[in-house]
Amino acid sequence: MSDIKDILSKYKSIAMIGVSNDHTKASTIVMKYMQKYGFKVYPVNPSAKGQKILGEEVFEKITDIKDKIDIVDVFRPSKEVPAIAADTIKIRAKVLWLQLGIRSEEAKKLMETNNIEYIENKCTKMEYQTHFLKVRQAFPVLQD
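Structure (tokenized):
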């Protein structure tokens, strides 16, 4: 597997699929955290398209984002991942990152074939804490 520390050092734009308007949901907590540490996060949620989450415009799908996306970070069921993987190839992202509990053998093969980094069953927030802050807690309290 690729070096997670290297990925989180090199790539700073994240399309986060499945971010919610509910600020208590894991996806929104992770988005806020990654923003706090300098990542540009593009929330993707078809049912919130055009709204704002944590100050960012919400997109229906990653192919609607005009800016360059480095990491596609997925908070959706595993069965949805192959279609997301196809869009990841279309936008030429560098990494497909599946959050805790999310896996897809089909997506993994697609990423390998297209030379895109693939990470599954890992949280971007927890990995950032582990590699850069030397913290192991899952969700310490965020300070505004």
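The helical segments are 4-10, 26-36, 81-90, 105-113, 124-133. The chain has a mean pLDDT of 92.
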